[in-house]
Model the fold of this input.
Amino acid sequence: MEMKSPPPCPSSVTVRRNPPRRARPTPYSAAPPSQPPSSKTSSAIRSFPIEDILSINIPDKPEVSVSTEPSCSEKLKVFLRIRPIVTHKVGGSVKTGGQKNVWPQNPRKKDVSKVVGRKTVETCLKVNDEHSVTLCAPQSLTDVRRTKSEVYEGFSHVFCDESTQSEVYERMMNPLVEDFLKGKSGMLAAMGPSGSGKTHTVFGSTRQPGMVSLALRHIFSQKESGRSKSSRAFYLSMFEIYSERGKGEKIMDLSQEGGDLYMQQSNIKGLKEVINDVQQAESLIASGMLKRSTAMTNSNIQSSRSQCIINIRCDLDNLDEDQSHTAILTIVDLAGAEREKRTGNQGARLLESNFINNTSMVFGLCLRLTKYLRDFLEGKKRMALVCVILTAKPGEEDYQDTSYLLRQASPFMNIKFESIEEQPLGNKRRTQTLPKAEQAKRMKLHSNEVCMDDEVKRSILHQPHKGYICHACSISVLLDQKKTHTIGFMREPPFIVGTTREHNQNKPKTNNEPPLAGVGGFIVYFGCVHTGSRHKWWFPNDLHPMYI
Ligand SMILES: Nc1ncnc2c1ncn2[C@@H]1O[C@H](COP(=O)(O)OP(=O)(O)OP(=O)(O)O)[C@@H](O)[C@H]1O
Done:
């Protein structure tokens, strides 16, 4: 009898790196009320690293009304752009990587190997479809470490190496700009390893303008067509965050006469904003690019050595409704993550690399925490769309960089956040349709805030420190069972939005500190971007522990 031979062993196994998973819900229970508050409680809260974020200068009064419509959940948009393989000669050998002002002829082959010049270059990244890629380990690694190929899926869109700037713009940037023109803020951040095409995507070149130029042209073409009743004024600023020899970080205004900037309460002071027309805006970008710190590294002939941030601000005045509103479109070109081994950086360059890697990592972490920190990441910008474009290098020798990027970004795909729709400018505020009982519960955090009706206001005035709920973001200050003591803040899912400071003075200094002479306590700071208010709340030590 003829024996059938078993099927050959696959040389590589496909692993789905980011299968759709349900996040475990955050436990919704507080510590037992009987448990006395300890220093442990306050220190746990104090370790929540958002002190800086909370000091964002939020305007006292919101500029637009916020509806009480149920919020809808939105996904962080993550795009992947694969750079074409470029070869250049370094010391007689052909290397893949970035080369200044050399535009490769994109090969038409969709195979995993690409013919560049006379040399065949293996690629490590294969596009499966619009939303997924397979990362294939090079032969050398599969032999030694039995490294498997991995599928990464869930991207909003994968741009292959042949994609043009205008294709990327249409799919990724255009929705952001359209929303921005309607008064919604948004952010695009480009992240990826050094030399992967972040700066190319964001700024491009004269022949291939990038997202910033295309967005400006789009914005000004709308402005000139004067299609709405609103009057709009646009402003543009460009600055970089860099580190000199790894010592601290500095901010530099990249406008022509701009110099060093400094932070004041998380606001950048002295940043110049210009704009009248698209030419002026583009010349600011061009001169900013010349000023930006760049250097030659092994990965990129003109590598960005700073995080560059461009803000396009739009002040909308609705002539009919006598309302004004500000929206900001932020575009971030992050410096590329670098592996020391690959860049061969030393001395000052190495210190710079450490700074870049650290800030990129922190940015990555912030994005992972977006579902919690989104409000703070956005600062005063409401209802922002956040997009990330990952740029990847597909060369065989780029495997490690690309693998790191995809692994780091994989959790981004699952980030969802609650978005609360703003009413479009010019619409009258919706009237409250909530049941009376519910309305009574909805007390405001500050007596001078707007989304509060008179009934609620009266109840607050009578109980000025009992606990309030913000309509828009449902951050609430909880009361204990007798409704006489504040025991914490919560939200859906519950989380603390504040930081604490020991406060043992007998006599409170402000109205927010209830006059409980002789009782020590601590203060919780928190902010609400929807109502535009910052709050400070005092907790006596002998009250119930807080929700964490
Ligand atoms: N899609 C693309 N098409 C053609 N050339 C590209 C593309 N992406 C990048 N390049 C070229 O590759 C080189 C490196 O790109 P770029 O400087 O944009 O990388 P980067 O990610 O910003 O690097 P760094 O983080 O070091 O600043 C440049 O010469 C750029 O022109």
